[in-house]
Amino acid sequence: MSDIDRNENKARYSIGIDLGTTHCALSYVDMSASDGEKTAQGVLSIPQLTAPGAAEERDLLPSFLYLPHENELAPGDLTLPWTQERKFIVGELARSRGAGTPIRLVSSAKSWLCHPGVDRRAAILPSDAPEEVERVSPLESSVRYLTHLREAWNHAHPEAPFDQQDVTVTIPASFDPAARELTAEAASAAGYSRMTLLEEPQAALYSWIQKSTGGWRKQVKVGDVILVVDVGGGTTDLSLIAVVEREGNLELHRVAVGEHILLGGDNMDLALAHTVARKLASQGTQPDPWQLRALTYACRAAKETLLSDPTAEAVPLVVPSRGSKLIGGSLRTELTRAELTQILLEGFFPQVDASTRPVSRARVGLTQLGLPYAQDAAVTRHLAAFLGRQVNALAEIEGLQHETPQGATLLHPTVVLFNGGVFKSPLLVERVMSTLNSWLAAENAPAARLLEGADLDLAVARGAAYYGYVRHGRGVRIRGGTARAYYVAVESAMPAVPGLEPPVQALCVAPFGMEEGTDAELPAQEFGLVVGEPVHFRFFGSSVRRQDQVGTLLEYWQPDELQELEEIEASLPPEGRTPGEVVPVKLHARVTEAGTLELEAIPRGSSERWKVEFDVRGGVSADQGMGL
Amino acid sequence: MTDMNPGFFGRIGIAFGVFFGVLGNAAFAGRVQRLREAPEAPDFTAEAPKPAAAPVQPAPSALKESSPVAALQLLGLLQRDARFIDFVEEDIANYSDGDIGAAARLVHDGCRTVLREHFTIKPVRTEAEGSRVTLQEGFDAAAVRLTGNVVGKPPFNGQISHRGWKVEDTRLPKLAPSHDASIVAPAEVEL
Predict the structure, then answer these.
(1) Which residue in the set A77, A81, A326 is minimally distant from B90, CB to CB?
(2) Is residue A361 predicted with pLDDT exceeding 80?
C-alpha cells in the first residue's frame, strides 16, 4: 500500500491491536471526533466463546487456540455472533478447555513466532499433540487471533469496515527482522490491508502521553532519558527513549531496545505453583497435572493479594477436587509472604549490583514446552546488562544536551515507565526502582523518577491506536527508526587453513536508526548469485554499533556487539539467464511503511530487484543449540 | 389434603435428631426450650394453609412465567466458577469448620467473580446504614421497603437498616440456539 492510497481513502478510526503472548486487545481512536491532544478513544469488547454454545464480550481475548475433536462438542456449540462455520476456538473457551486437554491447545504462539529454532510456517503446534490432531503453524495461529479481532470489529462497526481503517499491530521491541516480517505476513493473511507495526514499549509510552492530555510536557524535560520496563505475560521488553529538543519543540527519540527475553508473568505464577506443589509433596500429597494447573491459578490470585496488601502474611490456597465432592477432596495449603519474597523478589527481581550479568544455567520448573525461555529469571540482571551494554547510546543524539559522565559503567535513565500487569504490585515497582537507584547512586547520578498514571493492562493497545492518530501529524511522535544495524557475512579472501573456519567479515547493509519508508544506500560490494539456486548468507544485527554506515566492513568485533540472526536467502530466477551462471548483485535494504526490513538483490547493470527472504525454517539456529 | 404432621417413623427420626441436637448445640437447645414454652403452634391437621396473596397490587390479571434459561445460565456460571452446586449439594455435617471454611473461600471467590463479571450491582441508597433519611411522597416502594411503625403519610422519616442492592446492568452470555442450558455442568470423562 502506498502513501497515496492512504491519503485518498481516509480512515475514520485508528485501530490499535496488542497481539500479546497471553492476551490480545483492541483499542480505537475515532479520528473524526478527536482534536489535538483530546482524543475520543474506546476499547472494543471482543465477543468470544466462554463456554460451549455461550458467547460473551470481554476486553481481552486470551491468545489461545483450541483444536477440538469432532465428537467433543455438540453441533452449534461453536456459534459466534457472526459465524457458525468455525472449526476451532480462540479466546476464553480455548484457554479453559485447553486446561483439561492440553494436547489440543496452542498457547504462546507469539513466542513460537520468534523462535529461531523452528520452522515458523510449518504446522508444529501444539508441540505435544498426537498424530491425529491437525496441527497449525505459529504463523497460522497468529492469523487466527488477528482474524477473530477483525471479525469482531466488523460485527461491532458495520458502518466502518476494518480494512478501511488505519491499523497498528504491536510487537516486542526486541523482535528481529524475521519475526517482524512474519507478524506483517500474519496480518496480511488475516485481511489487514493497511497495517503498521509498533514496538510495545513505545506504545506504552504513547498511551501514557495520551492519558496525560498534554501534561507530559510538565513531567519530562529535555535531557530526560525514559526507561520503559515492560513485563508482559511471556516477554520482558526494555527500551530507552530520550527527550530531546528540536526546533524549539520537545521530541521523543527511541535510542535503544533490549534483547529478546522470553520471561514474563506466567513464569512467575508457574514458579510459585511449583514451590507450593513441592511443599504439598513434602506433606505427602502429590498434586496431579490438573491440580497443578488449578494451583497455578490459585497462586496467581494469592500473588496479587500479597503484592497489593503489604500487611497480609499468608494467603490460603484451596485447590478444589475434580469430582463433585468439593470439600472432601480439596487440597489446602497457603502461600506465605516469605515464599513470595523468596521466589518473586529474590528470584525474579533480586537486588543485584550494576555489574552483574544474566547467568546461563540449567533451571527446573520454569519452562513448559520447547520454547527457549530466558536462562536467567532475574529481570534486574537483564536490566543491568541492558544498561551496561548501552552505556554510550546517548553520545550521538542531537538535541539531548547529554554528556556521558566519566567512568560511567551503565547508561543513566532519569525516569522510568512501567508496563504490564506484574507492576500493579507496588512492591515490585519499588524493588526495580530501588535497585536501579542504587546503581545510579553508586555512580553519583541522581535517582530516577517514576512516571505515574500508566494503564498497565490496556496501555499497549491504547497507545497503538493513539500512534495511528499521531501519525497524521496530530501529536508528538517517538522517532528513532530501526534499533539495530544489520550486516551480512562475507568470507574474507584468505587462504584456507585446514581445521579452521575461514574468518568472516561483516558488511553493513542497513545502518542503525533507519526510519519507516526509507531506503539505505547501495553498498559498493557485490556478491555472486548463482542463477536458479538459492544462496544463503549469514546475517547479523547489532544494537550498539550506531556509527556504521552502509558498506562498512567489520573484520573484528566484540562477541556481544553483533548477534547472529537467521540466515537470509537470495535466489535469482532463471528467466532470461543461463542456470548456473554467476551474476554479481548488490544487496539493498529498505524499511517499509509498515515497519519491516526488506532486503533486495539488484543485479549489476539492471533495474530488476529480487526479494531476499529471511530464512524462518529454523535450521541454522537449531544446529547452534538454541532450539528444542 | 395430606396430613402435614409426620408419621410414626418420621417422629422417631425427629426425636433422635432433636435429642442429639439438644445435647450438642446450646443454641438449638435454647430454641427447643422456647418452642416448648411458646403457646400452641398453629395446628396443621385441621385446615390447609391458605396460599399467600400475590404481591402484585394493581389488577393481577396474569402472572408472567419467568424464563428458566437465564436462571439456568446463572446456575451454570455459579457452578463453573464457584462450584456452587457441588458445595450446596455436598453433605457438610461430617466436615470440620476449617474444611468447610476453606471450601467457602473458593465458593466466595467464584461467586464474587460471577457477580462482578455479569452484573453491575449498586446499593439502592448511597447513605451509610444507620443514617436517617426522609422519604418524600411518591418514593419507589419497590426500591425501599418500609418496616416497623408504618403509619401516617409521607414524607416518612426513618433509619436505613439495609442499603439495598440494585442490578444496574446484566451481561449474561449469548447462547447458541441449539445450546441446552439445563446441563449446568457437563459430566467430565477423562480419556
Answers:
(1) A326
(2) no
